[in-house]
Amino acid sequence: MWLEICLFLLAVFAYAYYEITKQFNFFKSIGLPYSKPSFPFGSKQMGDLMMKKVKLEDFDDQVAAEFPGEKLFGFFAMGQPTFYVNDEELAKQILIKDFNYFMDRRSMDFGHDVMNAFLTNLKGEEWKTVRSLMSGVFTSGKLKKMVPHLIQVGANFEQHIGNKIGEELNMKDIGGLLTLDAIASSGFGIETNSFKDQDNAFRINALKLTNAPGYGSKFVLLKLAIMLMFPKISKLFKINFVDFKVLDYFSSIIRQTYRKRLESKEKRNDIIDIMIDELKKKEQSSGGQDQTYESEFEKDAALDTKNLTDVKEKYDTEVILISNAILFFFAGFDTTSTGIALCCHYLSHHPDAQEQVYREITTVIDEDSEPTFEDLQNLKYMEMFISESFRNFTLVPALERVCTKDYKVPETNIIIPKDRVVKVYTKGIAKLDSNFKNPLAFDPDNFAPENKPNKFAYTMFGQGPRNCIGMRYAMLTLKVALVHLLRQHKVLKCSRTVDYPELNQQNLNQLKDGIFIKLEKRF
After folding, report:
1. Residues 342, 501 contacting (CB under 8 angstroms)
2. Lowest model confidence (mean pLDDT) among 204-218, 407-421, 493-507
3. CA nearest 421: which of 90, 92, 77?
4. Is residue 439 within 8 Å of residue 432, measured between CB atoms?
């Protein structure tokens, strides 16, 4: 018996060793500098990360630091060879100019139709088809229709914090309440007030879906790593970081709402309504149409939509709508609530900038009036402040793509083979003097037009056609939050305010020690 067990374990070890080490000579064979690998973690930095010797937010910095003069080098994540790009011009080539070679991201088989149809999980023409559909959902004209839903949530937020004057408030948690209600209302057609009822079913299931502390698995990062690096093993043992019961809860809500809207023709001007309209529009469209762009960022993200297959030929309409409505929540909840918390952190540390944001609010928005969509668009300094908050605390240090066909790196003899993973280190670009006026300090004027900021160097929402499709919605929600936070209150430091935020290494959706501030009435 013991002999059989030992032989089995030896066989498992031998298989793992072979799988992890079989490509360790890959970069040497193509003449590219690389970080030396060893069993089982691959390159040293990966081992340090797995053994918790380095924080996740510092991981890409340490990888790049090993090759300070190299534009391109190799790295091993366990047994997987990964190309690392540490050069602004090559980054532009990969993310924008030569996008057709790097159209995909790593995808996973979640074992669930709804998650498999997430826009972020699709590849090639399938991704193009659904992306072209979803692009029409987040235009300025469509977002304008959602503003009343956001304003109501903002008013509930303002009333809630008005009763917390002088208390030490964790703005990641309070920002989460606002973000949750905003998405429930503008995305799912559900009116909630989580400030008054924090135990409502929608909120509890949302916390489970996002693996919030106390509501999800403690091993979510390990499960995700196994799914990415060992897909066959994860499929064999049905490893997943999402609770399918919770996923089915949200799927049921959206499905019922969708069918009810089709029957009743009721219009609420939320994400579900707009997606229904876009699906109908795609059915009636005969092909690609001339495109207009609201910014250079959007122009860089443009796709050629001519000759794309009818979306209904590839996917069931309900699955498309359900999966991407849930993705809207999945991708937006923690990003936006973290954004609110970071803004509060920097407001408390930079009272002069806070005062300038407040003065702009009083100038643009009529006293005792709720902001209109046009008012929110005209809060230019506030937008600079928000962007600088994200730039100064880098949530996304690198962008990842998968090579879709062999690519010759410009001005070299290096070929990136099809299906290889490429990581573009972007954090360093954001800290260059050539890209921002005052790159190493918190300074909203880094985004002032007269200072000619390099928009490519700001990658919080990605770059190129695979950027974050909900960027405008996130910015709109953050502006609504700051208007309702600041027009009656000052944000101050408290005894639990940290000098610099850190990610929680056990749960990357949280900030270590929270973001605590206190409020003072303005008048």
Report:
1. yes
2. 204-218
3. 77
4. yes
CB environment 223-259: b (16+ within 10 A), e (fewer): bbbbbbbbeeebeeeebbbbbeebbebbbebbbebbe
Token pair 């006293």 is at which residue? 367
User: What tokens appear for 31 in the block?
Assistant: 């003449």
Q: Are 56 and 503 in contact (CB under 8 A)?
A: yes
Q: Report how far residue 185's alpha carbon sits from residue 173's, in angstroms, rounded to the nearest whole number.
A: 19
Q: Amino acid letter at 102?
A: F
Token digits for 67? 């090759």
Residue written as tokens 């072209």? 132
Mean pLDDT is lowest, of 367-371, 408-412, 417-421, 508-512, for: 508-512
Return the structure tokens found at 476: 């709109």
- Helix extents (H) in 301-444: 311-314, 317-349, 351-364, 373-377, 380-392
Q: What is the DSSP string of 123-150?
A: -HHHHHHHHHHHHGGGSHHHHHHHHHHH
The count of C-alpha atoms lying within 13 angstroms of the C-alpha of 245, restricted to the half-sphere facing its C-beta, is 4
Measured between alpha carbons, how far is 303 from 119 in angstroms, rounded to an integer? Answer: 15
Structure tokens at 5: 């067990």
How many residues can be counted in the chain? 523
The half-sphere exposure of 96 on its side-chain side, counting CA atoms within 13 A, is: 17
* Cβ partners under 8 Å of residue 280, min gap 6: none
**What six digits make up the tokens of 484?**
């309702």
Number of Cβ atoms within 10 Å of the Cβ of 421: 20
Are 250 and 329 spatial neighbours (Cβ–Cβ below 8 Å)? yes
For the stretch 8-66, pLDDT in tens is 889 888 888 898 899 999 999 999 999 999 999 999 999 998 888 888 889 999 999 99
Distances (CA, A) of 315 to 113, 116, 129, 237, 306: 10, 11, 10, 27, 19
Is residue 6 within 8 A of residue 58, CB to CB? The reply is: no
Do 43 and 76 form a contact (C-beta atoms < 8 A)? yes
Q: How far is residue 59's CA from residue 508's CA, in Å, rounded to a whole number? A: 13
- Give per-residue pLDDT as tens, 443-475: 999 999 999 999 999 999 999 999 999 999 999
Give the CA count within 13 Å in the CB-facing half-sphere of 77: 17
Query: What is the pTM for the complete model shown?
Result: 0.92
Mean pLDDT for all residues in the chain: 89
- The answer to whether 194 touches 203, Cβ cutoff 8 Å, is yes
Helix axes of 351-364 and 380-392: crossing angle, nearest 10 degrees: 150
Task: Give the separation between CA 342 and CA 378, rounded to whole angstroms.
Answer: 22
Determine if the peptide bond prior to 40 is cis (ω within 30°). yes
Element (H, E) at 76: strand 72-77
